[in-house]
């Protein structure tokens, strides 16, 4: 996360706070899900099914259509103008007891990078915890983090001890065999972020926004390099392209065979046009940073009917969690061992 600039701080900091406060509304039902069991000789392509609900038929209530909200990429926050960035050497470890929200807790504990650390930690925990309802005063949070080569904050490992559920959530940064980008995995080798079935993106860095993360946000944002192939999630017909270009940039709308409309925004290049028939998995565009966007990403939005209700992609697609390939487990075990030693050393001195 870029911490070198100071001119954009206030608006971005407010956006991050709203993002974290509202994001927990989407995942409260996930906290009671059982832990994913691991089996021997598991490959990365094998996944554990997490969410498979079908969209409800009674969600056809028509709404007045507005053009898709000018979606803004989940921007990396900037440091406050009065807080000059400090030069960090090596991994920093922050140990804190929850008091209020995660941003409130880390504002001082990880100063002057509290906003950046809390935003990334929240993106990891939100898949298993409702961050508005599940936190308890005194819950323990342990985070190892670094600054990257371009002054970005990177979470290397995190452990969260929940009193409500009497369990520990763990996250360790690790690049699995065959993956383009590192992801975060539990100590047992299960990926923390969920992945959509029939996802429009195969390779992406992370999901930075879920439905209703912030006011008027109507879809899911994938942080991804410009020029990454974007695929049609389901078969359908292209109904329009490049409408409301100033806000959406290059964009495509596809009507699925079941009447659901899918919108793909901020593309760098369209490969289909209105009237074209597309198949599931067909490359329809390349991702980009066009329109009103502050960073390369794909905004993916679903509506029930041309003017209908916004649908959560997780509910419509269903979602999975991957397991580490067997060949990666020894290397990953070393990462976990070293990270835990670092965290436990910091705990002992606090």
In short:
The chain is α+β, with helices and mostly antiparallel strands and 350 residues long. It is 19% helix and 28% strand.
- Number of DSSP E strands: 18
Estimated structural class: alpha+beta
What percentage of amino acids are in beta strands?
Answer: 25-35%
Order of helices and strands: HEEHHEEEEEEEEEHEEEEEEHEH
Please explain how this structure is put together:
It is a single chain. The longest helix is centred in the C-terminal third of the chain and has 21 residues, at about 330-350. The protein contains 6 helices and 18 strands. The strands form 3 sheets. Strands 8, 9, 10, 11, 12, 13, 14, 15, 16 and 17 form a 10-stranded antiparallel sheet that branches. The chain has a 5-stranded antiparallel sheet with strand order 2-3-4-5-6, with helices on both faces. The chain has one domain (about 10-30, about 45-350): Glucose Permease (Domain IIA), CATH 2.70.70.10. Strand 4 and strand 5 form a beta hairpin. It is of the alpha+beta class and about 350 residues long.
Based on the model shown, name its key terms.
alpha+beta, disordered N terminus, five-stranded antiparallel beta sheet, Glucose Permease (Domain IIA), 19% helix, 28% strand, 350 residues, 6 helices, elongated
Write the layout of secondary structure elements.
Blueprint: H1 9-23, E1 47-51, E2 92-97, H2 102-109, H3 114-125, E3 140-147, E4 153-162, E5 167-174, E6 183-185, E7 195-196, E8 206-209, E9 220-223, E10 229-231, E11 236-241, H4 245-248, E12 250-256, E13 260-270, E14 277-278, E15 283-287, E16 297-304, E17 310-311, H5 313-317, E18 319-322, H6 329-349
Antiparallel strand pairs: 1-18, 2-3, 3-4, 4-5, 5-6, 7-18, 8-9, 9-16, 10-15, 11-12, 11-14, 12-13, 13-15, 13-16, 16-17
């Amino acid at each position: 996360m870029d911490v070198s600039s100071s001119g954009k701080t206030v608006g971005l900091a407010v956006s991050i706070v709203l993002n974290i406060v509202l994001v927990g509304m989407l995942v409260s039902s996930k906290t009671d899900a059982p832990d994913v069991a691991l089996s021997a000789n598991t490959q990365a392509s094998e996944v554990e099914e997490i969410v498979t609900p079908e969209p409800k038929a009674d969600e056809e209530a028509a709404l007045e259509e507005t053009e898709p909200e000018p979606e803004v990429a989940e921007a990396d926050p900037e440091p406050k103008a009065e807080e000059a960035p400090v030069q960090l050497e090596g991994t920093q470890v922050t140990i804190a007891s929850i008091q209020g929200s995660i941003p409130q807790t880390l504002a001082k504990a990880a100063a002057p990078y509290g906003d950046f650390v809390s935003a990334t930690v929240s993106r990891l925990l939100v898949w298993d915890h409702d961050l508005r309802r599940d936190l308890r005063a005194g819950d323990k949070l342990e985070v190892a983090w670094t600054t990257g080569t371009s002054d970005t904050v990177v979470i290397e490992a995190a452990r969260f001890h929940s009193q409500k559920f009497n369990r520990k959530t763990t996250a360790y940064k690790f690049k699995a065999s065959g993956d383009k980008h590192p992801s975060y995995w539990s100590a047992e080798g299960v990926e923390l972020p969920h992945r959509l079935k029939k996802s429009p993106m195969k390779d992406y860095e992370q999901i930075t926004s879920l439905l209703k993360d912030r006011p008027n946000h109507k879809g899911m944002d994938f942080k991804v390099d410009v020029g990454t192939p974007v695929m049609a999630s389901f078969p359908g017909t292209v109904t329009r392209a490049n409408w409301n270009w100033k806000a959406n940039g290059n964009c495509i709308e596809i009507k699925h065979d079941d009447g659901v409309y899918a919108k793909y925004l901020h593309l760098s290049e369209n490969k289909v046009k209105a009237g074209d028939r597309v198949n599931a998995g067909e490359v329809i565009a390349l991702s980009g940073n066009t329109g009103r966007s502050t960073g390369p990403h794909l905004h993916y939005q679903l509506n029930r009917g041309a003017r209908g209700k916004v649908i959560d992609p997780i509910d419509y697609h269903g979602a999975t969690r991957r397991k580490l390939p067997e060949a990666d487990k020894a290397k990953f075990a070393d990462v976990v061992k070293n990270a835990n030693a670092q965290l436990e050393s910091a705990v002992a001195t606090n």
